[in-house]
Amino acid sequence: MSKLLQKPEKQEVAEGVTIIQSVTKGNSPLEYVEFKIVELAQGAEYSELLIKKECCIVALTGKINVTVGEDVYHDLGTRDSVFDKVPTDSIYVSNDRGFELEAITEARVALCYSPSDKQLPTKWIKAGDVDVEHRGILSNKRMVHNILPDSAPYANSLLVVEVYTESGNWSSYPPHKHDRDNLPNESLLEESYYHEMNPPQGFVFQRVYTDDRSIDETMSVENGDVVLVPAGYHPVGVPDGYESYYLNVMAGPTRTWKFYNDPDHEWILNR
């Protein structure tokens, strides 16, 4: 199996609390991005203290309360399934703070991390404030929920987006990359993809490759998998009959998303 493909692996860490995915510096090639998927039974609680890292808490499904210090954010979450295709609530928590999750209903929560040493205010990213963007034409259509884009001033390194790709379409396409600290032409951002499919028995294909092919992996990606992108181009293809959802986490030395298209395939933008 590819070193860039991480399968779900359930780990019960407390009563009613199961970690499904855990991407850390210790088990991945990424230096700037860490990631968890936490499933909570109704009434279950989960807490963390952030040491030298920031976190974006995304209420993927179900409803949760989030406590950060003296602040309590009630009844967060808008979806029974990510394929309800509506934005959801998120909470940005800066470094050296603690947070607690409490599940009002059964819930799935994404925790998106990057290194941070400048403390910023906690931010409730309300579902109604999330920008919804439609990109692409022909068989290159997708819908994007910009949860924490580079235009948002309330994070140090993190960028977080959700992407929906229609049946038979391509996404992150034409192939693009952001692995050189070469602004204003390109920024250096690592990336992770957390994938879900509808129906859930589906799969997508994702290729990660560099110009010199020192990385060249093509993966069959199933529901709940995470693909790691330390460098290179990273397109996603969705087979007929299935819809694709993925949650992207990006981070790097500069919080700017400036990508570079593979020149061999950039011509499709001019059709």
Summarize the structure.
Keywords: Isomerase. This protein has about 270 residues and is mainly β.
What is the CATH H-level superfamily? Jelly Rolls
Q: What does the radius of gyration come to?
A: 18 Å
What's the story with the biggest beta sheet? Answer: 7 strands, antiparallel
Can you identify the CATH class?
Mainly Beta
Family: Belongs to the isomerase IolB family.
Pfam families: KduI
Keywords: Isomerase
GO molecular function, one term: glucuronate isomerase activity
What does this 3D model show about the protein?
The chain has strands at residues 5-6, 11-14, 17-23, 34-40, 45-49, 53-61, 64-68, 71-76, 90-93, 98-103, 107-115, 123-125, 131-135, 142-148, 159-165, 170-171, 176-177, 179-182, 186-188, 190-198, 203-209, 216-222, 226-229, 236-237, 243-251, 260-261. The chain has 271 residues and is an all-beta fold. Strand 2 (11-14) and strand 3 form a beta hairpin. The protein contains no helices and 26 strands. The protein is globular. The mean pLDDT is 96. The strands form six sheets. It has a seven-stranded antiparallel β-sheet, with no helix packed on it. It has a seven-stranded antiparallel β-sheet with strand order 2-3-4-11-6-9-12, with no helix packed on it. It has a single domain, classed as Jelly Rolls. The chain starts with a strand and ends in a 10-residue tail after the last strand. Pathway: Polyol metabolism; myo-inositol degradation into acetyl-CoA; acetyl-CoA from myo-inositol: step 4/7. Its EC number is 5.3.1.30.
